[in-house]
Design goal:
By secondary structure, the chain is mostly helical. The protein has 12 helices and no strands. It is elongated.
């Protein structure tokens, strides 16, 4: 059947509108990303806000403020625990580098290389230049400072938009449902409820996995005698929030510190971490994410890889809740197109007017 000119024009118009929408979205991709992050933060904090609102009977705006205050307090506390010891560790490391290089002369293998190539003298010379090199690097901090200021401004914008979404979210949901038919309103409520539960479950599961990684690292460092166990365990937990690869990044930092205590200590920690990572990757992580977001382990891995390739670390963080939301929508569409037949009851209904049997 040939299409009429009106149908052809309508099809072309729809294609042009879709292409224009994609082009505008691409131009505004930074704003769209900030909006997505704000929605993610709002959904993740909706359960704590509801809990505070229910327990304190405070107005919703005050409950949101209290939750924000708690989050900021946790971040400040972590900073107070991690930053000062790490700064002192770096300063001490810079002071000790020349002596570390001089101690290498006692190694027989390096003595042979030193006689052949003058290796230790060159390393010692470069180590003596390290403080001046670090001092000269201060001039390069301008771009880093500007970038940090931009990230802070973006974070404030995300929190502000999330605050408004949390404040007006329930009213907005009621408004949308009122504009839909009863069937579609029920479907919309089911999708949004399941998506919110999946995102909240993902956040809770991610923090649980990260806390366990930090605790396991702390116990290992305490047994092996690795210094600065508390701040290193906190950074381990922080990096462990990144799915699949975060724990490896945190373990490398700890292994570098352990190497200064001796190669045996570093090797022992790496062996311990490899065993722990296998348990986390194949047992703990899939179990947590399957229970919290109802997502298969293979989908977790593929979604993280896809998110990381698109948006880097941020994409890896958002990949699992995004995949869970897409799965919920797809399941709802499948349920609409393939309704399950009603299961007939085994007990036949009595004929109309019949008296019920006595018990």
């Amino acid at each position: 059947m040939n299409a009429t000119p009106a149908q052809t024009a309508r099809t072309v118009l729809v294609v042009v509108i879709i292409a224009a929408a994609i082009y505008v979205t691409w131009l505004l991709r930074d704003v769209v990303l900030l909006a997505i992050l704000a929605v993610f933060v709002a959904v993740a904090l909706s359960a704590p806000v509801a809990f505070v609102e229910r327990v304190t009977h405070a107005p919703r705006a005050l409950a949101i403020f209290l939750v924000y205050l708690g989050v900021v307090g946790i971040i400040v506390l972590v900073g107070l625990v991690v930053v000062p010891p790490l700064v002192s560790e770096i300063e001490e490391f810079i002071r000790q580098v020349p002596s570390y290089v001089r101690d290498l002369r006692d190694n027989p293998t390096l003595q042979h290389w030193d006689q052949e190539y003058g290796l230790v003298a060159k390393l010692e010379g470069e180590a003596n230049k390290l403080p001046s090199m670090l001092g000269g690097a201060v001039s390069e901090l301008e771009s880093v400072t500007i970038g940090a200021a931009e990230r802070i401004a973006e974070s404030i914008a995300i929190l502000a938009v999330a605050f408004l979404l949390l404040l007006d979210g329930p009213r907005l949901m009621r408004l949308i449902r009122s504009q839909l038919t009863p069937e579609r309103a029920e479907r919309f409520a089911r999708i949004t409820t399941q998506a919110a539960r999946a995102i909240g479950g993902y956040v809770a599961g991610a923090f649980a996995v990260a806390a366990l990684a930090g605790l396991a690292a702390f116990l290992a460092m305490t047994v092996l005698g690795i210094p600065f166990a508390i701040p290193l365990a906190v950074q381990m937990a922080f990096f462990a929030l990144i799915p699949l690869v975060g724990s490896a990044i945190g373990a490398i930092v700890i292994a570098l510190v352990a190497a200064f205590e001796g190669p045996t200590t570093a090797i022992a920690f790496l062996v311990y971490f490899i065993v722990y990572q296998q348990v986390e990757t194949h047992v703990l992580g899939p179990f947590v994410y399957k229970r919290t977001v109802q997502l298969r382990p293979v989908l977790v891995i593929l979604s993280v890889f896809a998110g990381a390739s698109l948006l880097g670390i941020l994409g890896a963080l958002l990949a699992i809740p995004a995949a869970a939301t897409i799965q919920i929508v797809v399941q709802e569409i499948w349920r609409i197109r393939h309704p399950q037949p009603a299961i007939p009851s085994d007990t036949p209904e009595p004929p109309a007017g019949a008296e019920p049997e006595p018990a």
